[in-house]
Amino acid sequence: YNAIEADLAPGRDLDDLKDIASKAADNIARMAALFTLYEGGEMIGAEGVQRASRIVIWHMHEAKRFFGELKADPQDLLAAKLDRWLLDQKRDRIPMSEIQKSGPNALRKKESLEPILGRL
């Protein structure tokens, strides 16, 4: 539990999952109780808490991975939009001036277009 709390600090591993990680201790306790009940025990032991902790921590890291993948870099989104536009043109070569004139609106200025072309 203390390790999870420490990782909730700003800039730490779980900083962006406070809503999920703040419930970790409760979830660990519930799971440990379920393990104990399922195994016919009467007292929650350290082993059950450790097993529950491993599962909860794994799920938190999966949530971090999943939600991290949903946060797309805006530059990557523009690169994908330009890539789609270029493919739709069905030509081998397209002058930069034509992209600036007819391409995606967000990329019609040279300052916006050049970094995105570098990503492709």
TrEMBL record:
UniProt xrefs under InterPro entries: DUF3987 (IPR025048)
Identification of the protein by name: DUF3987 domain-containing protein
